[in-house]
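User: Thanks for the earlier help. One more: DUF4177 domain-containing protein. Can you show the sequence and predicted structure together?

Assistant: Of course, both are below.
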Amino acid sequence: MMYTLRHIALMAAMLLALALPNPAAAAECYADYKAKKDSPLRLHYGVMQLHQGCSKADAKKEVAARIKGDGWKLLNVLSVFDGSELAGKESSAGQFYLRY
């Protein structure tokens, strides 16, 4: 099979694009949320790293699914943010800081 210079250049460009890191995919995304359990009523504030998207709608789905296994029900997602805003949230979230 004969490759022209154009084909070789195109293949090289595609390989280079695949090899470069994708900054959007590498960006860390977090959400802080409030959740509850009934009987007896218990509430918690938590911070979670997101893996399924970085919008509030994505966060609601992911947080609800991950905390459900321990019997928690999501009340609301307060915010979605990057790693630069993590500072100071550990003391507020306590045992629920990056737990799930």
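User: Great, one quick takeaway?

Assistant: The chain has four helices and three strands.
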